[in-house]
Amino acid sequence: MFKRFPDVTFIWKFETDQIEFLKGIQNVHTVKWAPQNDLLAHHNLKLFITHGGMGSVLETVHRGVPVLMVPLFGDQMRNAKMLERIGVGFEFDRHDLNYVEKLSGAVKELLTNESYTQASKRIQFLIENRPFDIRDSFLKQVEFAARVGPIPSMTSIVPRTGFVAYYMLDAVALVSAVIAFACVSLWLIVRKIWSMVRGQKKVKTT
């Protein structure tokens, strides 16, 4: 795939030394660790390929870089759909990574279609020019709390929650009961089948 983009330099975070398959490919540089946020801030960076962890998502939109998402598990699937919805990139199925045509096509689309870059830069602009600053908001909240003291109407009810509700023991009990019922039912079914099989064997031997 890399040979199809001779004018593009790829920086690949690759944590092992088994890179024999890259022998002879001049436009790929492997590193075991890279300052991701600094790389995303570089003006020559045109595309970011990532599994889509929340940290990577936040850094990507903050730096205004188009992204190819290859989610593996957990929240990465949701993150990929979120970025795809706002137009800064799209999701690529991890099972298709061995298909050179599909992967090359996805990379080419993101490198050549200006709409992804424009969408990325717009999101970056919106973040940088939001009408409030998160740090200022945090400091104001702390100063407000120090000045007025505890406010009953804004106090969480969690400390006053009962032992059962606090530890969600009712939900745990319900789930445990369902699992226990399923296990007992499965055991009874297996026991019944085993009894029938044994009964048929006795009939045949007699």
Automatic annotation (TrEMBL):
EC numbers on record: 2.4.1.17
Gene Ontology molecular-function annotations: glucuronosyltransferase activity
Pfam families: UDPGT
CDD domains: GT1_Gtf-like (cd03784)
Predominant subcellular localization, coarse grouping: membrane
GO cellular component terms given for this protein: membrane
Transmembrane stretches, start-end: 164-190
Keywords: Glycosyltransferase, Membrane, Signal, Transferase, Transmembrane, Transmembrane helix
Reaction it catalyzes: glucuronate acceptor + UDP-alpha-D-glucuronate = acceptor beta-D-glucuronoside + UDP + H(+)
Membrane association type: Single-pass membrane protein
Compartment(s): Membrane
Keyword Transmembrane helix annotated: yes
Annotated family: Belongs to the UDP-glycosyltransferase family.
Record-given protein name: UDP-glucuronosyltransferase
Species annotation: Steinernema carpocapsae (Entomopathogenic nematode)
Lineage per the UniProt record: Eukaryota, Metazoa, Ecdysozoa, Nematoda, Chromadorea
